[in-house]
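Q: Is it fine to ask for two folds in a single conversation?
A: Yes, each is treated on its own. Send the first.
Q: Here.
A: Result:
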Amino acid sequence: MPNSKPSLSLFTGAGGLDLGLESAGFAVSLCIELDTDARATISKNISDWKLSEPGDILVLEPQELALQSGLGPGDIALISAGPPCQPFSKSSYWAHEPRKMKDERASTIRRTLEVIDYFQPDAILIENVRGLTYTNKNEGYLEIQRGLRLINEKHKTAYELQCLTLDAAKFGVPQHRERSILVAHRLGKLLSVPETHQTNRIDPVNDLPFCPNTWDAIGHIAPTNLAELELTGKWADLIPSIPEGSNYLYHTERGDGVELFGHRTKFWSFLLKLAKARQSWTIQASPGPATGPFHWDNRRLSVGEAAALQTFPDGFLFEGNYRSQLKQIGNAVPPGLGFVLGCALLDQWFDSPKVQANKFIPPLKSSIPEPEVVRAVPGKYLQNVGPKAAHPGHGLGPGATRRIVNSQKTRKTSNNPAA
């Protein structure tokens, strides 16, 4: 692309973020990615992206990245990064005694700062789960802030960390995927929130424009490997008794099914099913047998369907087995959101206005089929029907009780070294 701005991609994964950034006008000079299957996916689909050797950023010094990319300090317009999110995910947030910056994966943040320190790019974009910035659990965010402050003191730059919390669904992606987008400019410029996606389809309930939905994205896909997509596990036969767009809550005291579970006693994704007329919920990277979202045909999503909900282009192929391919897709930034972010950066920080439409967003279909028929609850589950206790409320559940007890034990031990 003429006049493209050079970028360096850290933790590229399958390339979702960078596909969008490149389409907006950035040129990927080098990709650093450790996962073997993800590297193979990039090589298969994007032959002109150069992969670093080796792929481990903790082994590669910034000077080696300069040699491999052919770029030095001051040459890079953008460093994009998506450090491993596990230390900052919701499951880690609810760990008994989280110490995220002691997690070896959090060392990737420190290496990211070292790369920024060396190259001093015009702009920085770091994507992660919302847990990165949770109050009192934001060690990773504070680490980045401290690192940029030291870089500013050293190089007389003015990086000012800014956090945008964005839901991909508001920007045309047919999937609710809320993430923290951290950005900073070398001269201290601030970024305005990008414009949301607008369509002519109006939601009659909210009188607001409808973005593309699940049917728009995957209604045309007919998987051929249905045997591989069959549901397994204890609750597999219960899923057909849950309506489109609902989850286990349907079978609670406050739902319209039978009372099999306590209200709000499970994760939202438990037995979660897609609805044709709504946007998908977040595609999981490593789902369990009862973790949705599941297809309205009462099966797992195919790789092609999951990729389409993430707005990967048609024909984009993933390497590895089913679990590895789904992990690459679930860990990715939707290319459609990457394009929106790239356009915002180029428009506001590089005086390069957007000149094209977002090619990753699926077109709206003219009609949506009726929801699938809900089946009866199989007899083997009916023996479990009966009153169930609901979750007692925020901070009162068994997990919270466990954390309080463990915290008290820790304080008692620290106050009594002889114990």
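Q: Second one now.
A: Result:
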Amino acid sequence: MAKLKTEAGSIYSCIVRDISEGGAKLRVPVNACIEGRVFISSKITGAERAARVMWQDQSSIGIAFEA
């Protein structure tokens, strides 16, 4: 389980479905509208990391980690 926080301050619980050095695919609540810059933290990603939402479908988002 991971925690995703938006710049606006909304917080979502999500599941990391796939991860690489450059980004991740996350399962998020159905029909959640998550856009722009986000911050993710989990046991897998470690300390909070900044990322940008690159795509979204009904229950998943793809994020690219910022350097």
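Q: Anything structural to flag on that second result?
A: Two points. The radius of gyration is 10 Å. The first strand starts at residue 2 and ends at 6.
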